[in-house]
Amino acid sequence: MITGVTGAVLVLIAFIGNEVGRMKTTSLWYDGLNVVGSGFLIYYSVLLESWPFIILNIVWLIFSLKDIVRRIV
User: Fold this and answer.
1) 73 falls in which pLDDT band (50, 70, 90)?
2) What ranges do the domains of the chain cover?
3) In this structure, what is the dihedral angle of CA atoms 13, 18, 21, 5, given to the nearest 10 degrees?
4) Which pLDDT tens digit goes with each residue over 13-52?
């Protein structure tokens, strides 16, 4: 359960940070929080065998990771 809560908190920090204007969607912090958070959520959803949640978070992780790689390279 701690894994799922941790993942959700990280993704929500990025989301709320963007909504209140404290974090841009183009920042490495934003995408980094999303990558780590969705990674935790993937692990948690595998434990629950929740396929819709697994797919959602894999897509979330891929797109966030793509943005990080694009900025670094």
Assistant:
1) confident
2) 2-72
3) -10
4) 999 999 999 999 999 999 999 999 999 999 999 999 999 9
Beta carbons within 8 Å of 6's beta carbon, 6+ residues apart: 37, 40
Cα 69 to its chain centre, rounded Å, is 15
**Cα separation, 58 vs 33, whole angstroms:** 14
| Tokens, residue 72 | 């670094």
Nearest to 10 by CA among 68, 52, 60, 48: 60
pTM to 2 decimal places? 0.92
Gap between the Cα atoms of 48 and 64, Å rounded: 23
As a whole number of angstroms, the distance between CA 31 and CA 12 comes to: 12
